[in-house]
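Entry 14. Two folds queued back to back today. First construct below, sequence then structure tokens.
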Amino acid sequence: MIVSLFQKYIRYFSISKMDYISVFITLGGVTLLVIALCAPVLYWAEASAVDANIKSFEDAVWLSFMIVTTIGFGDFYPVTGLGRFIAIPLAATGIGVFGTLAGYIGSVVLDKVVRQATTDMLHQQNSRIELLAKQNNELNAHIREIASENKELNRMIVELSKNNEALNRKIDHDTDEILKALREK
């Protein structure tokens, strides 16, 4: 069931398995390295103390895991100054590991959200561009129609101008004839 959830998580967030595995291997490796370095020192510092409750190496390893996982000390806890000092890098490692893991998961989730928002925004922009292109095509068709009508109107104006010139010449001629006839009388 956990593997199935892990696979769904990876598919949903489009994380490459190698990226995810490399993060876990790195975090796990760092954690184990710190435990491997601190547990023997913790055992050495605590085992010889009079009131120590860490009596075996296994107790020291167990305490190291409890500190790293931030669960707490529980039945085992350091009583010497050196033992407490060694608990600091263990606690810092636990906080760092869980903080890094939470940050990584958060960044993956945020990346998915941003990617989805960007995709939605691009779809909206594409829809708007398509609408504007359609309106532009309609306006171009109207402009061509008006230009065609303009061409026809210009042709009619030229024809009317010619007719008007001919009519003006006829009027001028007729006026001259009338004036000539009136003068002769």
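Second construct, same run, same settings:
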Amino acid sequence: TDLTELFSYDPQLAATLLDEAGWTGRNEDGFREKDGVELGFTIYPTPYLTGSVPEAELISQHLGRLGIRVRTQKLDIPTWTERVTNDPEQGVGEVTRSFVDVGTVAGVITDEGEDWFQTGSSDAELVRLRDEVAGAATREERAPLVEELSRHVLEQAYFIPLEQNVQRIYVQSPELTGITFNAVAIPSYHAATKEKP
């Protein structure tokens, strides 16, 4: 489903909305502030994807033009896990996951699963859509529900997609046989053998 209309680039509208929300002051560095509090946050790019750091830097540049300070801090895997994954107070985190089936998503978006958006069961519409997606018996029944769920998640700004995670490159010998692939195209070499030339 194409939901690009929800992502129109309109810096003037963004600036107007920030002004209307009361972020009209500017500090000495030029960033917006309200009641002495600077508008900004820190992004911790995931160490699992090479494109995360340049994406974070691009986000910082675009939001900086609007007066929002975005700090980027690169971390190693153990520190990233502690600072981002294990910290319930961390409001901005990168989520990357490959799913075998879109119906699996219903199990991670509320407190009946991983609670990706930290909403628990407080969003009745999200809970309804979760249950309907999980209970759909056919792809035809599920497709419009997934579209409705996607639209709701984006309109509530629970999640902002930045990339499609398809960065898998494998190089192997043509003599290798017995390779199997799971539903998200990750190879398994467990039963693979190499033919002798």
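Quick look at the second one. The CA atoms of residues 133 and 146 lie 6 Å apart. The longest helix spans residues 139-155.
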